[in-house]
Design goal:
Mean pLDDT of chain C: 89
CATH topology of chain C: ABC transporter involved in vitamin B12 uptake, BtuC
Low-confidence stretches of chain C: none
Radius of gyration of chain C: 22 Å
Shape of chain B: globular
Structural class of chain B: mainly alpha
Helix content of chain B: over 70%
CATH topology of chain B: ABC transporter involved in vitamin B12 uptake, BtuC
Radius of gyration of chain B: 20 Å
CATH class of chain B: Mainly Alpha
Strand order of the largest sheet of chain C: 1-2
Shape of chain C: globular
CATH architecture of chain C: Orthogonal Bundle
Oligomer: heterotrimer
Order of helices and strands of chain C: EHHHHHHHHHHHHHHHE
Structural class of chain C: mainly alpha
Number of strands of chain B: 0
Helix content of chain C: 55-70%
Number of domains of chain C: 1
Largest sheet of chain C: 2 strands, antiparallel
Number of helices of chain B: 14
Strand content of chain B: under 5%
């Protein structure tokens, strides 16, 4: 049986005398950087894993480990999962990248999937979502809904993924509202409810009446609710408990279809290392329900944009677009290629402030 | 850069809200330290208070009952520390650290079912005309009741330490437990009461975070606020009114930093965040360099184990 | 009524018996906790305490991992115990650990990609010096101004954390890292990497240093004049002064030594298991080491055992998490209980329980 042999090999690779045990099920492991009820990033991976588990039922065995610190402990968590007989392990945080590559070397027969990273190997795939497609729809809604023409944006870290989101939202807000201004605040954290609430309050106090966030807690929504007449968007999760106001829509990570596809591939023996960057079309990025607080014609406009992105008719980064310093980035009709987008580190024209170095 | 975007009145008002949790916790720890006990478990007690308060108010629909539950939860946890350090004479530093570890774990366990919920809302007090006063109205008279409770507690603690006999005894115990014991005071009992008060206040501070300031429950949501409260007590050199100043300094730095960013000012965030601690060290040095004054405020027997051997 | 009576000297029987009793009580209390969570308590306890050592599938991997996890704890705790014995309280080892790691990693990043034999030794020196220097701040303030070293060393932890964040986001950020915070991975820089000395043994230089520190501390405390001075100062500062001990010198030595060891622990961690400077590089080893020092009763051999026990609960706890689907929080609470029992029962070694009223002398 194939499982036996691979366990024996992986044990050999480590120089171990562990005994392999036979098991027919495919064993799937997940490690999360936060607790599985963090209300955002880790919770969404966990819920997608649960949908996947439901899909396969008894055909698979699911093991999970939450709150795995990035660094030395990651490597041990991954190794222990591999040793316990996992056929495929999903490492669901960017900071797990190097440990995943290291452990994958020791277990050539175990498949690894790393979320949002850029290092791959024979047995390591990467997967990520095109959040910027959702950001385009958010930008449009924000530009239409703002009264003060000031939109607040809570950034986590100045990495390409976040900068893509800021650029995309800004481009589409400006398109529908040329007077719109963005205020960007860097929280330097993915998840710190108190700090996120402070950031939202600071933005609201300075006139922002729409808040976009690239941090994971619902604290900004609560701050907006308290302030009144401020709109927000769910991040990673739907955050529907704050609908219909302040939360008027959301971008949802929907990893379940991908997880089902990849586990199925392991079952079929067709798994290969690849890089997946899924957007609205593949279902990896979903736009949460646009609430009643949004007038019908704006909602229709947003849905039309979503559909044109989904069908491939429109790319959110289509020229003419200039960089912040005024130099030309994309000529009329030109579309940004994935390579440039993956490493995007500059603001587009019209945004104020600097990308922190 | 557009500094005019920052409205100082609103800024000060939000500083007060941001500082309330650490002010509450620090007021409690001040009493604990005045009695000669160093409890490093503030973070653990705060987060336990945060979940106890959150769970109770979600269950009952009443924020007031939530705060009550937080007081009980924080005090109950502090009694583990009290039992270990006062009765079983374990080391205070190690026990306090263990208390933080335990509190973080326990709170996350209790909170398993409460993630993603919304607590019942707490409205600002309706102070009628007062709230409409220019400037002062917004800064002073537009908050929820807990902000005023925290200020009142600072005043109470100040009056207690300064004017009451019980306050005098508490300070005597912290100054020299041997002497206090010789005078017939029940050192262990007094310290246990102080520890319990510290736990209750830390719990209250935690609940302010989970019920009003954020408001939601997530694991580890205090994110170091308890440690800041500890530093704050030292910064205040064990004087209640200075806690207020310190709380706005410590609690305000983050708010100020975010406001400056929103106004387009590039600030070295880490440097700003480190300044309150550096200032605190400076205060400590100045205090200890001036020996006559140091003796007045820092409890001499802080952190020492007491056993009535005679 | 029960009261406590101080023993003339610590009980040998109880010294050995209390840790066993504490672990046993924790198993019971923890078992109740796990049962309340709907998990099999016996299985959970077995996985935490037995499987990391003897499970056929895991043990050959997790046994060496015990050393990896215990190494920094022991190294830091040994340094701290010297001061604690003399009544000098460095509780800022976490900060010294961070600064040590930053100094060491800074040397490596500055020399990158130079491949030379002296890179790693230079890093070790820088790491130790960094931790030493950070600990010298409370030491000098204490000797010059009598400033309380507990508070200063604790406050400097927060400052060090901010410096760490600034470095991970700024100066030390990996220029090829796509803008993500965090430095280059030192594991991929052979001249700077602190790799396993024997494959799959868990032994890296940090573990070696921990063992050396245990032996050195043992010799120092039992055979050396300085060790005698440390013990004497702890027991009676007045007597120590009459015996000619220089209290300021002792403060400088104890804080300096503990800072240097914490700095080394940070350096070995950043160049080995962790691999890079990242915003949350510090995992609380500096604070956990304080607990380890007390669990080991400030005795070098005791600290060695206490460090291994702590490591066991970490590793066993991780196994229990994914084998039984226990929440991470349950493991934290369980560790907290273990510490409470260990700290609380320790009273039995120094005190005797007496029933009845105190007789009047």
């Amino acid at each position: 049986m194939k499982r036996r042999t691979f366990l024996a090999t992986s044990a050999l690779a480590l120089g171990l005398a562990g005994t392999a045990f036979a098991q027919d099920k495919v064993k799937v492991g997940f490690i999360y950087v936060g607790p599985v009820n963090d209300g955002g990033w880790s919770q969404h991976h966990h819920e997608s894993a649960m949908v996947m588990k439901e899909h396969f039922g008894d055909a698979i065995e699911l093991v999970e480990q939450e709150s795995v610190p990035e660094g030395a402990d990651t490597e041990r968590a991954l190794t222990q999962m591999a040793l316990s007989g996992c056929d495929i392990v999903f490492a669901t945080s960017f900071g797990f990248m190097d440990p995943t590559i290291n452990v994958a070397k020791k277990f050539p027969k175990v498949k690894f999937e790393h979320a949002t990273g850029y290092k791959r190997a024979e047995n390591v795939s990467t997967y990520s979502a095109r959040f910027y497609e959702g950001r385009a729809v958010q930008g449009l809604l924000a530009g239409r809904m703002t009264q003060s023409n000031v939109i607040g944006y809570i950034g986590s870290f100045p990495i390409p993924e976040v900068i893509r989101g800021i650029d995309s939202a800004f481009i589409h807000a400006r398109k529908v509202n040329p007077d719109v201004q963005f205020k960007v605040v860097w929280a330097n954290t993915w998840f710190d409810p108190a700090k996120e609430a402070d950031a939202a309050t600071a933005l609201i106090n300075q006139g922002a009446d729409v808040i976009l966030q690239h941090t994971d807690s619902t604290a900004p929504h609560a701050a907006a609710e308290k302030a009144g007449n401020v709109y927000t968007f769910g991040q990673a999760a739907d955050m529907a408990e704050y609908a219909p106001k302040p939360r008027i829509s959301s971008i949802i990570d929907n990893w379940a279809p991908y997880y089902i596809e990849r586990v199925q591939a392991v079952m079929d023996g067709t798994w290969e290392s690849k890089d997946t960057w899924g957007g609205i079309a593949s279902g990896m990025v979903k736009i949460g329900e646009i609430s009643d607080a949004v007038p019908a014609e704006i909602r229709d406009e947003a849905i039309a944009l979503e559909e044109s992105i989904s069908s491939g008719a429109y790319h959110p980064f289509t020229g003419p677009l200039n960089k912040q310093d005024g130099s030309v980035w994309l000529a009329e009709g030109e579309v940004a290629d994935d390579g440039t987008l993956a490493g995007l580190n500059f603001y587009v024209e019209g945004l104020s402030g600097e990308v922190p170095k | 850069m557009d500094l005019s975007a920052i409205d100082p009145v609103i800024l000060i008002a939000s500083l007060m809200v941001a500082s309330t949790p650490i002010l509450l916790a620090a007021t409690g720890e001040l009493i604990v330290e005045k009695s000669g006990v160093l409890n490093l478990g503030v973070e653990g007690m705060m987060i336990t208070g945060a979940i106890c308060g959150f769970a109770a108010s979600v269950q009952t629909g009443s924020p007031a009952l939530g705060f009550l539950a937080a007081i009980i939860g924080g005090a109950a946890l502090s009694m583990i520390f009290g039992l270990l350090t006062q009765v079983l004479m374990s080391n205070q530093v190690a026990t306090g650290l263990a208390l933080t570890l335990f509190g973080l774990g326990l709170s996350a366990l209790i909170g398993q079912g409460y993630a993603g919920m919304k607590p019942p809302p707490t409205r600002p007090l309706d102070l009628g005309v007062l709230s409409d006063l220019p400037v002062i109205g917004k800064i002073v008279f537009s908050h929820d009741a807990m902000v005023y409770v925290s200020l009142a507690l600072v005043a109470l603690v100040w009056a207690f330490l300064r004017y009451t006999r019980a306050g005098l005894i508490l300070r005597a115990v912290g100054e020299s437990h041997e002497a206090a014991h010789a005078l017939g005071y029940k050192v262990v009992r007094i310290r246990l009461m102080a520890i319990g008060f510290g736990g209750a206040m830390a719990g209250l501070g935690g609940a302010y975070l989970s019920l009003i300031r954020v408001p939601q429950w997530t694991e580890g949501m205090t994110a170091g606020a308890g440690w800041i409260a500890l530093a704050l007590v030292v910064f205040a050199s064990w004087r209640p009114w200075r806690l207020l100043l310190g709380a706005y300094l410590f609690g305000g730095i983050t708010v100020l930093q975010l406001n400056l960013q929103a106004a387009g000012v590039a600030v070295p965030a880490e440097f700003l965040s480190a300044t309150p601690y550096l200032v605190t060290i400076l205060v400590l040095v100045l205090m200890s360099a001036d020996r006559s004054r140091a003796a007045l405020h820092a409890p001499a027997d802080l952190g020492k184990t007491f056993h009535a051997s005679s | 009524m029960i009261r406590l009576e101080k023993r003339p000297s610590p009980s040998r029987v109880w010294t050995a018996a209390t840790p066993v009793l504490a672990v046993a009580l924790t198993m019971v209390a923890g078992g109740v906790l796990f049962a309340m969570l709907g998990k099999d308590p016996v299985a959970a306890i077995r996985i935490i305490f037995w499987d990391p050592l003897f499970n056929e599938q895991f043990a050959s991997y997790s046994r060496p991992q015990l050393l990896v996890k215990a190494g920094p704890l022991i190294l830091i705790a040994i340094g701290l115990s010297l001061g604690f014995r003399a009544g000098i309280w460095n509780i800022g080892a976490e900060g010294q650990y961070i600064i040590g790691a930053l100094s060491g990693a800074g040397v490596a990043l500055a020399l990158y990609p130079l491949e030379a034999w002296f890179v790693f030794p230079l890093m070790v020196i820088a790491g130790g010096l960094g931790g030493w220097a950070w600990a010298m701040i409370p030491a000098i303030l204490k000797t010059r101004f009598r400033t309380n070293e507990i508070l200063v060393s604790l406050l400097l932890v927060y400052v060090a954390e901010q410096i760490l964040a600034a470095m991970a986001l700024g100066l030390m950020r990996n220029p090829e890292g796509g803008g993500f915070p965090g430095s280059r991975n030192l594991q991929q820089y052979p001249a700077a990497a602190n790799t396993e000395l024997i494959a799959n043994s868990g032994m890296h230089w940090g573990v070696v240093a921990a063992f050396v520190a245990v032996i050195a501390a043992y010799v120092l405390l039992n055979r050396h004049m300085l060790g005698f001075q440390i013990r004497l100062t702890g027991q009676s500062p007045r007597a120590a002064r009459f015996a000619g001990v220089n209290p300021n010198g002792l403060v400088l030595f104890c804080l300096g030594a503990s800072g240097a060891l914490a700095g080394l622990a940070g350096l070995f961690e950043v160049s080995g298991p962790a691999g890079q400077v990242s915003i949350d590089f510090n995992q609380g080893y500096g604070f956990t080491a304080i607990i380890v020092a007390f669990l080991g009763r400030l005795n070098p051999v005791g600290i060695l055992l206490a460090g291994l026990l702590m490591a066991l609960t970490y590793i066993g706890g991780e196994l229990a998490q994914f084998m039984l689907n226990l929440p991470a929080a349950a493991i934290q609470a369980f560790q907290g209980m273990l510490l409470f029992f260990l700290l609380g029962l320790d009273v039995l070694t120094n005190y005797r329980l007496r029933w009845g009223k105190r007789e009047i002398a």
